[in-house]
Write a sequence for this structure.
């Protein structure tokens, strides 16, 4: 167990160990919780987040932090236009956000605002846990579960297979010739919320005596999306791990056997349904 201040600090440690020749598996990050001595309830850390952004992109930041990440906008003020590349000036916003709601936020907002956002956050206080999943520790509160493309075969990724998969993927994480094994996550599905999809990225074109050179030339696969260790930590789901070796960083399922994953997924779905029914009964 490694306690650290955010993904960056963990990433520095793991990267240093990787360069020293170590191999390791990184599990999804969890926040450090405490128990209130008075009420006995679980408490989680909250952060004060300050964001400086061009005025025309302020809505993107507000939607991201106050939506699924559980934040609250406290203050919003305009700054001098000279400090911004936007003619409309710049905006400073101050939020209060659960620490677990900030997982993956840095890379997400950098992409959404094209790197123009300046984000600073500092520990505020511990408060009672809200949202999350059932269990002894609060889980992620970030939005809808992303559907992943999970490999079901071993070999090298082929252009023929990736060309077919690119039409079903929002992003691919592998390129032609990359080593693939069952349980490895090779991309993100273009249909979030529909669950994971098992695919075969090593499938090659059937050999026939009919030559179709022109058709082969039309195959096109966009460049794979490259993510750092810190970005993977904010992106991964609870049933996934990051495989770190001196030569590669891969995202994969914690359980490589697809049949075992299916059984565990059904059990997890039943637990969530039971929890939802329990909460609705309390509401009535």
């Amino acid at each position: 167990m490694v306690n650290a201040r955010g993904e960056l600090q963990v990433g520095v440690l793991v990267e240093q160990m990787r360069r020293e020749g170590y191999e390791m598996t990184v599990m999804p990050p969890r926040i450090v919780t405490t128990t209130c001595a008075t009420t006995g309830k679980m408490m989680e850390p909250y952060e004060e987040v300050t964001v400086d952004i061009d005025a025309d992109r302020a809505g993107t930041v507000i939607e991201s932090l106050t939506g699924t990440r559980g934040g609250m906008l406290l203050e919003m003020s305009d700054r001098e236009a000279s400090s911004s590349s936007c003619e409309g000036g710049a905006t400073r916003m101050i939020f209060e956000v659960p620490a677990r709601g900030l997982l993956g936020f840095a890379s997400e907002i950098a992409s959404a605002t094209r790197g123009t956002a300046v984000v600073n956050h500092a520990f505020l206080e511990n408060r009672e846990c809200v949202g999350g999943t059932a269990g002894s520790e609060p889980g992620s509160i970030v939005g809808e579960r992303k559907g992943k493309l999970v490999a079901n075969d071993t070999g090298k990724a082929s252009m023929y297979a990736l060309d077919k998969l690119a039409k079903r993927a929002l992003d691919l994480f592998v390129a032609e010739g990359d080593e693939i094994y069952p349980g490895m996550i090779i991309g993100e599905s273009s249909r979030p919320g529909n669950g994971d999809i098992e695919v075969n990225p090593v499938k090659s074109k059937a050999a026939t005596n009919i030559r179709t050179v022109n058709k082969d030339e039309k195959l096109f696969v966009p460049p794979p999306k490259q993510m750092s260790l810190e970005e993977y930590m904010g992106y991964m789901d609870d049933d996934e791990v990051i495989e770190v070796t001196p030569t590669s960083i891969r995202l994969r399922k914690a359980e490589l056997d697809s049949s075992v994953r299916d059984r565990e997924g059904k059990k997890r779905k039943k637990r969530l349904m039971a929890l939802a029914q329990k909460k609705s009964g309390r509401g009535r």
